[in-house]
Amino acid sequence: GENVEQHPSTLSVQEGDSAVIKCTYSDSASNYFPWYKQELGKGPQLIIDIRSNVGEKKDQRIAVTLNKTAKHFSLHITETQPEDSAVYFCAASEDTGRRALTFGSGTRLQVQP
Amino acid sequence: EAGVAQSPRYKIIEKRQSVAFWCNPISGHATLYWYQQILGQGPKLLIQFQNNGVVDDSQLPKDRFSAERLKGVDSTLKIQPAKLEDSAVYLCASSPREYRGYSGNTIYFGEGSWLTVV
Q1: Are strands A45-51 and A56-59 parallel, antiparallel or unpaired?
Q2: A44-70 burial code (b ≥16 CB/10 A, e <16)
Q3: A2 in B contact zone (CB under 8 Å)
Q4: In the predicted model, what is the mean pLDDT of chain B?
Q5: How many CB pairs under 8 A join A and B?
Q6: pLDDT tens track of chain A, all 113 residues?
Q7: Chain B: residues touching A (Cβ < 8 Å)
Q8: How far is B34 from B23, CA to CA, in rounded Å?
Q9: Per-residue pLDDT for B30 more than 90?
Q10: Residue B109: left (phi > 0), alpha (psi -120 to 50), or beta?
Q11: Is B111 in contact with A97 (Cβ distance < 8 A)?
């Protein structure tokens, strides 16, 4: 089955700096790669996703890049704000709904004001 | 549009007792998932339903965990008897019925049910 590795496990940045979180996956059949943000006491919330027919996707201050050859994808947050502080999870699966998402172990991002 | 509803939000039980969690997915979503999230880890799939049929329960500890989805809508997850290592957040999630090319596998999570076994 799929295995997703995520780094770093914790990340501390100053407000206004950029943050980058990286993930690798093992199953070449995976073609759907979402990122979730989880705040304390809440369920994961989808913030951005990418499918294998594109290499990069951007939504305001967040962007995701995908390298299918190397089997890795990354989340980039620019101009970080204190409200970006949370745990971020990457995940991977086939985009057919037949297989559930496999998640990484999470990155705790702390944005220092 | 209402999100995924779960209850109870918090539960504390003694080991060897039983507990049940309930989930109501987003209206019209045929696929329902139960994930277990241990503190400090990513969610791990327990079971996936398509309508009221099981798609994947390979990681469900069937000697103590059971789940059902009657009528293809609501679902319950039961643990009996509970062990200390079952302390976790139990997340229910749902996704749309069919693959529509762009958003077929987008998964939406509920707030979770926090279980503490003492």
Answers
A1: unpaired
A2: beebbbbbbeeeeeeeeebbbbbeeee
A3: no
A4: 91
A5: 65
A6: 899 999 999 999 999 999 999 999 999 989 899 999 999 989 999 999 998 877 899 999 999 999 999 999 999 999 999 999 999 999 998 876 667 899 999 999 999 99
A7: 4, 31, 33, 40-45, 48, 50, 55-56, 91, 93, 95-96, 98-99, 102, 104-112
A8: 9
A9: no
A10: beta
A11: no
Please report where in the chains the tokens 């201050």 appear, as a residue.
Answer: A61
First-to-last C-alpha distance (Å) of chain A: 41
A68: tokens are: 């299918």
Secondary structure string (H, E, C) spanning chain B: CCCCEEECCEEEECCCCCEEEEEECCCCCCEEEEEEECCCCCCEEEEEEECCEEEECCCCCCCCEEEECHHHCCEEEEECCCCHHHCEEEEEEEECCCCCCCCCCCCEECCCEEEEEC
CB proximity under 8 Å: A 43-82 to B: 43-46, 49, 51
CB B111 within 8 A of CB B60: no
| Nearest residue, CB atoms, A100 vs list B42, B48, B102 | B48
A103 and B109 in contact by Cβ < 8 A?
no
